[in-house]
Amino acid sequence: MAFGLYKSGQGYWTRVMSAIGGGTLGLAAASWAWSQAGTIKTSYEVIYLQAVCAGIVAFLTAILVYWLVGVHRKSSEFLIATEGEMRKVNWSTRKMIMGQTWVVVAISVIIALILFVTDILFASFFRWINVLQT
Q1: What is the spatial distance between Cα 7 and Cα 25, in angstroms, rounded to a whole number?
Q2: What is the reported pTM?
Q3: How many CB atoms neighbour CB 45 within 10 A?
Q4: pLDDT tens digit at each of 134 positions of the chain
Q5: Domain map (residue ranges) of the chain
Q6: Which long-range contacts (CB under 8 A, 24 or more apart) does 73-81 make?
């Protein structure tokens, strides 16, 4: 069992999503390493240097993500406990979320209208006392 996981049957989704997030960051870092290696002047084609740098960054990221998500006891326990807590959350229904969204949209429109009218009134007042000139 060379590549085993600590408590492999627990915390599946938090581990998977954490691995995806870590992999995404690793790919972004590999892309950055690729672009940075492209600025180095070499006697051979720079694409080889870019590939090596990006490959090393991607490989090291993969090892780090595997270690954090699957092997390291403290981080694995944290992810397992997080999934357990997420199962306890009382998630809102779609109908409830849609209703709350419409309330937020309506209040935002009302506030925008109040600010618009206030702006016009202030602009008119300042034109009337000759502070603003058009």
Answers
A1: 25
A2: 0.66
A3: 9
A4: 457 888 888 889 999 999 999 999 999 999 999 999 999 888 888 999 999 999 999 999 999 999 999 999 999 999 999 999 999 999 899 999 999 999 999 999 999 999 999 999 999 999 999 898 87
A5: 12-88, 92-134
A6: 73/6, 76/5, 76/6, 76/7, 76/11, 76/15, 77/7, 79/11, 79/14, 79/15, 79/18, 80/7, 80/10, 80/11, 80/14, 81/11
